[in-house]
């Protein structure tokens, strides 16, 4: 099932995406667009909502505005240096341990919404990534439990302000400018993607292919990531894991091909969908 948050004539809603459009769902929640609450209730509501999705009247996607699938994730964690080709282009050593940083909640952005090139930097980069959405979280998750703890998957763009990122050994500021984590366009529930490690992943800038790989090339796979993070923190419904980017980032090009106002970045993952965000000046 593909679950999206969207705005239509009757306000913000959660809907199920079909080939012919999107069907608004009667979630029974206090807030009609509260995706985290729906994820928490999913084991009890999924059968009813599946019927609604199949039987309801669809509205063409062109008539709605898609929003970030989760408005306020409790955590946005992202792993660095997790594809071999990306490690090679950075000139850095393959990490022996997982390299994690956080993107703050202010980075959330929609799958079609503008992304700002900040006035304090001209070194803005793209990073297409598979995003895992936590369902039933927990602490000290075992490897055999990990697949069942993922609710679903999105496409993400870990937009990075490289000069701010590299000013210090801590990457949070360079990764946390406003709106620098567009993701979506919806959540594909994990039952539709039982193995997330066989998906083609691409990024195009103004139609030019920049990144092209497959999630089978992850150094630490999605299950490894859940196990490792949950040793340190309790994962909760709606938390996001940006699982790494392949080679082809702007910083590695000679000369670097930084993003500028007017550029359009398209991030695609097989079986999920695509983001397409225009970049604008702050």
From TrEMBL:
Pathway: Aromatic compound metabolism; 4-hydroxyphenylacetate degradation; pyruvate and succinate semialdehyde from 4-hydroxyphenylacetate: step 4/7; Aromatic compound metabolism; 4-hydroxyphenylacetate degradation; pyruvate and succinate semialdehyde from 4-hydroxyphenylacetate: step 5/7
Highest taxon above the source species: Bacteria
Gene3D superfamilies in the record: Fumarylacetoacetase-like, C-terminal domain
Catalytic function, reaction form: (3E,5R)-5-carboxy-2-oxohept-3-enedioate + H(+) = (4Z)-2-oxohept-4-enedioate + CO2; (2E,4Z)-5-hydroxypenta-2,4-diene-1,2,5-tricarboxylate = (3E,5R)-5-carboxy-2-oxohept-3-enedioate
GO molecular function list: 5-carboxymethyl-2-hydroxymuconate delta-isomerase activity; 5-oxopent-3-ene-1,2,5-tricarboxylate decarboxylase activity; hydrolase activity; metal ion binding
Keywords for the protein's UniProt record, in alphabetical order: Hydrolase, Metal-binding
One of the GO biological process terms: carboxylic acid metabolic process
Keyword Cell membrane appears in the UniProt entry: no
Annotated Rv2993c-like N-terminal domain residues: 1-69
InterPro entries, alphabetized: FAH, Fumarylacetoacetase-like_C, Fumarylacetoacetase_C_sf, Rv2993c-like_N
Domain (Fumarylacetoacetase-like C-terminal): residue spans on this chain: 75-279
Family affiliation: Belongs to the FAH family.
Function recorded in the entry: Decarboxylates OPET (5-oxo-pent-3-ene-1,2,5-tricarboxylic acid) into HHDD (2-hydroxy-hept-2,4-diene-1,7-dioate) and isomerizes it to OHED (2-oxo-hept-3-ene-1,7-dioate).
Protein name: Fumarylacetoacetate hydrolase family protein
């Amino acid at each position: 099932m593909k679950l999206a948050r969207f705005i239509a004539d009757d306000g913000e809603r959660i809907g199920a995406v079909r080939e012919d459009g999107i069907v608004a769902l009667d979630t029974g929640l206090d807030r009609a667009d509260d995706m985290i609450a729906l994820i928490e209730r999913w084991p009890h509501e999924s059968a009813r909502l599946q019927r609604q999705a199949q039987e309801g009247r669809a509205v063409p996607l062109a008539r709605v505005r898609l929003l970030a699938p989760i408005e306020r994730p409790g955590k946005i964690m992202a792993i660095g240096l997790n594809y071999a080709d990306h490690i090679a282009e950075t000139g850095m050593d393959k990490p022996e341990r997982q390299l994690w940083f956080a993107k703050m909640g202010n980075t959330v952005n929609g799958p079609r919404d503008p992304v700002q090139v900040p006035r304090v930097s001209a070194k803005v980069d793209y990073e297409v990534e598979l995003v895992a959405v936590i369902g039933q979280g927990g602490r000290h998750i075992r490897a055999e439990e990990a697949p069942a703890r993922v609710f679903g998957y999105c496409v993400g763009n870990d937009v990075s302000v490289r000069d701010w990122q590299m000013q210090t050994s801590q990457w949070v500021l360079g990764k946390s400018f406003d709106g620098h984590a567009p993701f979506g366009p919806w959540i594909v529930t994990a039952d539709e993607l039982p193995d997330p490690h066989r998906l083609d992943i691409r990024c195009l800038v103004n139609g030019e292919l920049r990144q092209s790989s497959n999630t089978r090339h992850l150094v630490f796979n999605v299950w490894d990531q859940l196990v490792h993070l949950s040793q340190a923190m309790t994962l909760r419904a709606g938390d996001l894991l940006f699982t790494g980017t392949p080679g082809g980032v702007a910083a590695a090009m000679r000369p670097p091909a930084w993003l500028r106002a007017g550029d359009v970045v398209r991030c695609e993952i097989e079986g999920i969908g695509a983001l397409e965000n225009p970049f604008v000046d702050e």
